[in-house]
């Protein structure tokens, strides 16, 4: 076996055939900004090997959960695209959406710091359309040839398979420090966006630049957005880590329970559009996947709504076997030459071939289109279709040359005729070489609490890195984004803070901050701490007020069963202090009861302390007020007390609506 042990250090890079490779940063393109060429054997070998490295779970996005739903367009988009599902507001298009983390295995926890997949399959009458995106609008790399390198770096380190579902280790940050195009995406992943409160409360983005093409053949560049109706909200880092231990299924449970309860998650589909003649009017390249289009400059037009209203019947048959592909498009939606998108158009099909056992994965029920499909493809593993007749080729006379191609007028897909010219070259356009201006734009757009969370995130992640050289490289790199940022986490991890750097970018984009997101009390979970002898009329009045606003109260006590109030009313206990935790709720309503034990007081006090530390709303009456006083929480922002049920309930609902009370962080 010794002859198979290889030490790569100090060697020249080769293909698997031993051919020395002269370039490993850029795929082969027709001109610097042109499409990737199929003849790029090095890219295809590298990507094919990467796509086949894991069996049977997905290489990335292995940990996922999904739901069925429907999509309705608000008004006809005929002016912009011929896509059939975007024409008639009276038509409901079935959809299937899979949410996922990226780095972890299928058995990992869900509230880790990570990007989230947001993949939507539209079952349209023209065929399946897959909008395969993330909850972050940009990506780490600019060219798909580097995707295997990125994922190798962020996955558990191969010598000990540690850490699982985490980027806080040497190889990931070594990659970042030596591939500075990652700067913008890293800012997002170090922000609150990377730890969403719920899958129902996070945005989705198509990431890449696509094209809308209308019936006249006019094209526009387009980016896709999903805007959650409940607003965009996040966890705090300490809370997220505790949830991973208390309930590693937190996000899927939240999504599943919401749909079962009839609180259907809703997202509005938005598009940003740029005329082709305006392609070069911006200070970023439209083809660069590490750049976003600022919403203040290119507004998001909301064009429809998606509602998720049915849970899956079988996770394996649906969630695990669903196959998405950005190349699954319908007439009226086309591609750009974004080099990351161009590589994905190859990679996704190739990945499904090994994951789902062969070329017929499209015949699985969850992947099968709702419209009929006809072609000359035959046989292979997993074939469901039983084709009749003797002909399986084009052209033919025995079957009157059918199935035959369809013209554009008949609904046939016609690729947009973009002029392409240039030398065959491995290179990247100079317009892709600005790696820091939008990272600074993101930093400038954050509120003060959000900035402090980003510094804390860098401090945590790099505090886990063992190599001081890597730590210093990252500090020096992010000095190009913000001196305040780099100096902040340099001090925390004990390396040399930069004295020079910073950026002359002063622009900000309010749309990037969650500070002004929509805030609603609907579907928020409130833990209600009760014991025997609680004030029955008051508790009934408050809980009725909460429910009237769509808030979901759940009773917590020292043991399961029923509790009796002062008026003889009974309340069923949903959780004990042992089986739940404050991190599993959006707010705490502390009441207590007559004659509660010392242990009850201790456990209730611990609940309030943790909720307070995570900036959550706290409501307290009776014994609850005593717990507030004992922990010096009374009169703090977001803490409501008092025994006037109507006035208390109104103030408590207002506090819940705010979600977090960051003022506690800065007073």
TrEMBL record:
Region Disordered, annotated ranges: 494-524
Catalysed transformations (reactions): 2 H2O2 = O2 + 2 H2O
E.C. number(s) listed in UniProt: 1.11.1.6
Annotated SMART domains: Catalase
Domain Catalase core, chain residue ranges per copy: 14-402
GO MF term list: catalase activity
Gene3D superfamilies in alphabetical order: 1.20.1370.20, 3.40.50.880, Catalase core domain (2.40.180.10)
Range of residues in the leader sequence: none
Domain of life: Bacteria
PROSITE patterns: CATALASE_1 (PS00437), CATALASE_2 (PS00438), CATALASE_3 (PS51402)
Keywords, in A-Z order: Heme, Hydrogen peroxide, Iron, Metal-binding, Oxidoreductase, Peroxidase
Cofactor: heme
Pfam families recorded: Catalase (PF00199), Catalase-rel (PF06628), Catalase_C (PF18011)
Residue ranges with Polar residues bias: 501-514
Cross-referenced InterPro entries: Catalase, Catalase_AS, Catalase_clade2, Catalase_clade2_helical, Catalase_core, Catalase_haem_BS, Catalase_immune_responsive, Catalase_large_C
Ranges of compositional bias, category Basic and acidic residues: 515-524
Family: Belongs to the catalase family. HPII subfamily.
Functional summary from the UniProt entry: Decomposes hydrogen peroxide into water and oxygen; serves to protect cells from the toxic effects of hydrogen peroxide.
Name of the protein in question: Catalase
Organism, scientific name: Metabacillus sediminis
